[in-house]
C-alpha cells in the first residue's frame, strides 16, 4: 500500500482504470452468454408451433425469451407472408445490431488496455524527472536515498499500468472470440430456419398428354 502511495497522481488514474476493468468484465461475464444470444431449446419449441401455424402461441413463447434469436424468430413470424429476401435482410439487421451492441459494451476493455500502460509510462517519466531533479540539486550521487522516491514512483507506475493492461487485453480478446462464436452459431441457426420456413418447395409441373392425331 505504501508503494501505491508513492505512485502519485498517475497511480490514481490507473486504479480507476482497474476498477472500470473489473466492472466491465463482471457485467459482460453475467450478460454476454449463450442464453442472451441463442438459448438452447428455443428452436425445438418454436418449430412445432410454426408447423401448426399457431403463431399466437409462438408469440407468447418468444415474449418470454429475452434473446437475439427470439427477436429474430418473432420478426420471421410477424412477416411470415413476406418473401425470403425481405425476411432474411430483416433478420440479418437484427442480429448485426444486437451483436454490435454487445461489442460496444466490452470495447471499453480495449480502451483500458491501451490507456493503462500510457498512464503508467507518464508516471514513470514523472518519477524519473523527479529523480534527475534530485541529482541536479543535490551534491551528486552521494546520497542514494534521495533518489528513492523518484525511482520508486517510476517503477510502481510502470508495474501498475502493465498489471491493468495485460488482463484487460486478454479479456477483450476473450469476449471478441466469444462474439465471433455466437455470431457464426446464430447465422447458422437463422439460415437453417429461413431455408426451412421461407424457401418455397418447387412444384412439379403437371404432365400433359397430347393425343397424336
From TrEMBL:
InterPro entries for the chain: ExbB/TolQ_transport (IPR050790), MotA_ExbB_proton_chnl (IPR002898)
Gene Ontology cellular-component annotations: plasma membrane
Pfam families: MotA_ExbB
Chief subcellular location: membrane
UniProt keyword Nucleus, yes or no: no
Keyword Transmembrane helix on entry: yes
Sections of the chain in a coiled coil: none
The family this protein is said to belong to: Belongs to the exbB/tolQ family.
UniProt xrefs under PANTHER family: MOTA_TOLQ_EXBB PROTON CHANNEL DOMAIN-CONTAINING PROTEIN, PROTEIN TOLQ
Name under which the protein is recorded: MotA/TolQ/ExbB proton channel domain-containing protein
Organism: Pseudoduganella albidiflava
